Amino acid sequence: MGPAMLEIEVKYPCPGHAALRSALAEWGARPGPARLEEDLYFNAPDRDFARTDEALRLRRTGRKISLTYKGPKLDAATKTRLEVVVQLEGGARDAARLLAGLGYRPVAKVVKRRRVYRFRRGAFRVEASLDEVRGLGRFVELEILAPPSKRRAATARLLDTARALGLSGSERRSYLELLRARTRRRARLGGRRAAGRRRSQAS
Q1: Is position 12 annotated as part of the catalytic site?
Q2: 142: nearest Cα among 9, 3, 1, 40
Q3: pLDDT, tens digit (0-9, with 9 covering 90-100), for 158-187
């Protein structure tokens, strides 16, 4: 068994991907195929992952199924965290039933179209994921997988890469957190509108 790897990641809102694709092509980045990813997130029976800043995700990409655990974020500048990924042979439905049998309950689904570019920056292999997330819009995620001993160097390289691409205004919340915040905003807005209608009817 190899050393535990850290997912060192930064994410930025991105109104359009064309300029990024051009910049990545100049660096010799190779794009993978566009793919649809369906992520089903679960909460634990013994703690609330929203409070502990953990995540358990069942991902379906075509016929590929994976189960991922992500630990709490480790710093305030990036989304660096422990990541453990297990590839599954069975279907997503069977995996979801297994988790439900253990007390894990599904809480939300995130659907996105993603194209991944891979390239090298210095001593590190970098992945740039150009995402279009249903209900949220376009983003770009930059990621390096590195052992804890190289965390500082990998973080510096990742932030330097983001600056070189002209990215700013990083978003540390996950897509799940962003969707939940959007749902709460809509609920508050709906509540205010309903209250306004009641006041109008009463007057």
Answers
A1: no
A2: 9
A3: 999 999 999 999 999 999 999 999 888 887
